[in-house]
Amino acid sequence: MKSLKITFGLICLAILASNIATMSRWNEARGVYDDVCYLRQAHLFQRFGIGGLNTNAALDDDHYFQGKLKEIAYAEWQEPAGWPCHTPMPGDKFVLQYPPGTGALLALFPEGNQVVPLYVSASLIVSGLALFGIFTAPTLPLTLGAGSFGALAVYIMVNPGKASYSVAPTMAVCAAAGFLTAWWLVKARQRLWPVMLIGLLLGVSVNFRLPNALLAAGYFLFLGIPLVWSRKLITFAQGFGFGVAVLVGMAPTLIAQAVNAGSPIATTYGSADVVAPAFSLVVFGQYLSDMQFGLIALAIGSTAWQLRMGEGGVRQVALVAVGNLLVNLVFFLSHPVFTPYYVVPIAMLTLWSLSFAALMEPVKASEAPPLPHGAAGVGALSR
Fold it and tell me: Helix 344-360 to helix 167-182 angle, to the nearest 10 degrees?
């Protein structure tokens, strides 16, 4: 089994190396409007520090964003009213629609070379957790599962991860939150700190893309429903602590909305982006023909399997996954717009959580790997 773990580890490292080689050739001016808008947020942070939360188009007095739009041959580069991903607000100002987190991470790296380091950093986190899962797998079937999923998770950092700069940090958060979810429910069910750390991570993910708020839905259901009948202090503390941690994590977005839209709960998205649910067979068909369908099918299948076969904490992880999948799939499948990454975060959070839960579940005696030859006799003598 050791050789199999080494083989899977090398496969993951090979995919990581290939990804990094591919990322190193990426062009930050590939013509995608979202890209230059995230880069504008990064530029504001580098120029004004925390004042970069204010994304008023009037602050482009150094013509940075106009230059970026000219670079991608955008026709209305001179007039803020025609700028992409900017929303009109009272007072004749135009502000970025996106939350500030992705731009803040890009701002950590030198201008002109920001995207590649962001993706490489996120890929290293994902790869590290994938390798950890592989080398801690206690049985042959779990090694096969951890190795196959680890390779998939690393590969996804390029496809469909490249579709939006917000996907890379989201994938890293999903991996870390999945590990902590499994640790909490399998190893530390009565502890408060894992719950709050999960809430903080999921709150932080909202700063990358607002729909990431739905990633916490299953946790709120899992923690909130028991409050109806339970009077245990730890039950209340975990539910309350999780909610507070989520709010703390998403505080930058709430502050940015207050600055740009006039209220922490006011959206910076325009009416064209805030649309009512409308189930469409066309959109559903796009999901069916996309890689996302495979991921969701895998997530649903894994969740159903653990609900049926899992025990204790593993089954509880599956219950969290059920709530999360239901809320997220209802939202995105009824959203009248398709993109190649919308349901990737919930699929990966689910798979990371279930994968680590299976790895952490105590191995039954009948499933444990055989002891090395002679070890049983040595153990008997030591007794």
Answer: 30
Find out whether 316 and 213 touch, Cβ atoms under 8 Å: no
In a domain, 152, yes or no: no
Do residues 283 and 337 lie in contact, with contact meaning Cβ atoms separated by under 8 Å?
yes
> Residue 379 burial by CB count (10 A; 0-12/13-18/19+): exposed, middle or buried?
exposed
Report pLDDT for 370: 56
Q: What percent of the chain has pLDDT over 90?
A: 74
| Among the ranges given (60-69, 270-279, 300-309, 314-323), the one the predictor scored with the smallest mean pLDDT | 270-279
Work out whether strand 93-96 and strand 86-89 pair parallel, antiparallel, or are unpaired: antiparallel
pLDDT recorded at residue 369? 55
In a 10 Å sphere around its CB, with 0-12 CB exposed, 13-18 middle and 19+ buried, how is residue 213 labelled? middle
**Total structural domains in the chain?**
2
CA dist., res. 130 & res. 153, Å (int): 8
Cα separation of 52 and 285, whole Å?
A: 40
Helix (H) or strand (E) holding 94: strand 93-96
Q: Look up the pTM and report it.
A: 0.91
130 in any annotated domain: no
Q: Are 256 and 365 in contact (CB under 8 A)?
A: no
**Contact predicate 269/87, CB 8 Å:** yes
Band (335; pLDDT cuts 50, 70, 90): confident
Half-sphere exposure (Cβ direction) of 136: Cα atoms closer than 13 Å: 16
Ranges 81-85, 149-153, 282-286: which has the least confidence = 282-286
End-to-end CA distance of the chain: 28
Of 88, 106, 124, the residue at which a domain comes to its end is 106
Which of 65, 118, 126 is CA-nearest to residue 355?
126
Beta bridge pairs of residue 88: 94
* Mean pLDDT in residue range 227-237: 87
Answer yes or no: do 86 and 165 share one domain.
no
Judge if 215 and 293 occupy the same domain: yes
- Stretch (H or E) spanning 86: strand 86-89
Q: DSSP code of 363?
A: P
| pLDDT of 180 strictly over 70 | yes
